[in-house]
Amino acid sequence: MNDTSHIDLDATYILWWGSSAYTTSGDMRESLKRILEAAAVKYVCVEECDCSEELRYRGDEYTFEMCARKNIDSIIKSGHKHIITPCPHSYNVISRYYTAMGLDVEVWHHSDFIATLIERGLLTIKKQLPATRMTYHDPCRLSRIGKTDAVRDIIKHISRHMIEAPHHSRESICCGGGAFLDTSSIPVKISIMRYEELLSTACDVIVTACPVCHDMLLSARTGDKTQVKDIACIVGECI
């Protein structure tokens, strides 16, 4: 997790949605804004281009760099050097690739930022859900670099029942969305397999920290009553 001293309430943070978060997760967006406002964190939104992470992994370096340059220019023109994003793909691209291209910024994934706000006493959990059984699906882009603690730390403040799936943390299974450009049935099969494993915990809520994971797992539901929620939505309901 980032050093807690890095949260600067005098600074203005760029709230970088990422393509999936911007287009599909209205509840998460509103919850995250509510959290930042409750903690008196100033933020702005800027013009975004798709980070094109998947295109780069497929070898389309040209398109990736075109989008990267547009995004870097947008961030520089804003005049702000602190970024919060709910999208692990954007977190990966900005913190690794954009900074290697010369962008001078500090990047937070929203789960780390929210956990740090709670830890520092800048955000108070007023409502707890002690009887709600929760399990957490680790997004690949976070778990593979060891970012596995923040959401679990937040859940400890909200519920007494955190149940780990058979595959979790660094050993978590992909939701299937890591290959969302694949038009075959493989991503769907992966999402169903992962959803059923999470469901085996007998949880009430599957917690996510990635818009792609959220949508993939939600699409794998088959009529059961288990909810799929981003961690920001859960925190937003409890402050």
Instruction: Give the proportion of residues in helices.
Output: 40-55%
Kindly estimate the percentage of residues that lie in beta strands according to DSSP.
Answer: 5-15%
Under the CATH scheme, the architecture of the largest domain is: 3-Layer(aba) Sandwich
Number of strands: 8
User: Pairing-aware structural class of the strands and helices?
Assistant: alpha/beta
What's the arrangement of strands in the largest beta sheet?
A: 2-1-3-4
- Average the pLDDT over all residues and give the rounded result: 92
Characterize the structure shown.
It is built from 11 helices and 8 strands. It has 239 residues and is of the alpha/beta class. It folds into 2 domains: 4-116, Rossmann fold, CATH 3.40.50; 124-238, Rossmann fold (3-Layer(aba) Sandwich). The chain starts with 11 loop residues before the first strand and ends with a helix.
List the helices and strands and how they pair.
Layout lengths: L11 E4 L3 H6 L1 H13 L3 E3 L8 H5 L3 H18 L3 E4 L2 H13 L5 E4 H10 L13 E4 L3 H4 L6 H7 L4 E2 L23 H14 L5 E4 L2 H9 L7 E4 H8 L1
Helix pairs in contact: 2-11, 6-8
Notable features of this structure?
239 residues, alpha/beta, Rossmann fold, 4-stranded parallel beta sheet, 11 helices, globular
